[in-house]
Amino acid sequence: MENDTPVAVPRLVIAGISGDSGKTLVSLGLAALARREGRAVAAFKKGPDFIDAAWLSWASGRPARHLDTYLMGVSGARDAFLMHALPGGFNLVEGNRGLYDGMDASGTHSTAVLAKTLGAPVVLVLNATKMTRTAAALVLGCQHLDPEVPLRGVILNRVAGKRHEKVLRESIEGTCKIPVLGAIPKLPGDTLLPGRHLGLFTPQEHPQMEGLSDSLARISASYLDVQGLMDLAASAPTLLQPRPQARIETGFGPTIGVLRDSAFTFYYPDNLEALEREGARLVPVSPLSGEPFPRNLDAVYAGGGFPETHGARLAENRPWLDALAAAARDGMPVYAECGGLMLLCRAIVWKGERFPLAGLLPLEVEVLPAPQGHGYTELEVDEGNPFFPVGTRLRGHEFHYSRIVDGPGRPATACRVTRGAGCFSGRDAIVQDRTWASYTHLHALASPEWAPSLAALARLYRGEKGGR
Length: 468
Known about the structure:
It contains 14 helices and 27 strands. By secondary structure, the protein is an alpha/beta fold. It folds into 2 domains: about 240 residues, Rossmann fold (3-Layer(aba) Sandwich), CATH 3.40.50.300; about 210 residues, Rossmann fold (3-Layer(aba) Sandwich).
């Protein structure tokens, strides 16, 4: 990437002492308030998380981008930020887990590493429940563990009252010499941002969306030093502005149906744009919509989500599921990840109920109370398939509570799992005709082969259909 023009790119990293510290509450509130005040907001999520990124997209009014030094490399994450950051706007990066939590004891690929990569000031969110001066010890430890991390402020969360806040402020500011930029009292967080398995409800399924943006903005306006935070963001050093990406030309290539509804929401914006750069025309399709399965599709991209919570409605739409399976058996390419894999199976079993689904794959899946795969994955393609050459190495991410009920007649798989859980013991990526179904989510910036391969298969299938 060629860079040449230094520009001001106001930016903040919202980090935490740990998971569940309140990073998402702070990030969404700041984005909602900044947008309400007329600021242009770009939001980013550190790591591969789909749900937090969906909320950040909702709050900022534009697609939130993922920044992941493991998947993209350090330079790739920096380039992705530069490509989508708003010069002169408010660019907010929500971290994940604790500030220094990474893949190993050294904190490799942590939020701290990303903050240094971006040269972005860090604000640390601290859950202050049942502590006072110990909070200063935690902040001081974060300062001294890596003095190169630009830790510039603290936001207190779940503060018990004015006296509690006063002691916390005096301890942190007196000991650590950095400002406390907000103190949020204990709030009914489960009402604002309720959770379930896999994390928060998605925006599409949140039970009380009406007025939520205003509520989050009011929390920020009432309890945060918003001007201090904006001044801190503006203090970030200038960055070199990259040359703009080539304009996406769509509509001259194959038509790819993307499952988009409340059951299937897990898509990286970069993946969709990568397909469009290959000339694909993306159209939303949904087995929940009541519309028939489209006959003009050249491929289907079935991302992740929560098919188990929609099992009854999916099972009722037998014509749509049968048409999808028939098109796949006819040679239409289908690329399915996690929830998409589940849709293609014979049935999902969840909370004692069995929901018959597409039946393309001779398997059943059950959803359990605990994660069956969670974290980064590494795959080596070691069997022939239509999507990737043998020898290709893929890096991705998985997070699923479901598992395949293994039995006789296990279908062919394309990949050896060198990190992660996958579909079966040591294996991932079920391959049948031109269908690829895996628990691994790939990111187009980490796997540049992915979009060209799916688009090429779609063009091939379109050509075959033209001869009939």
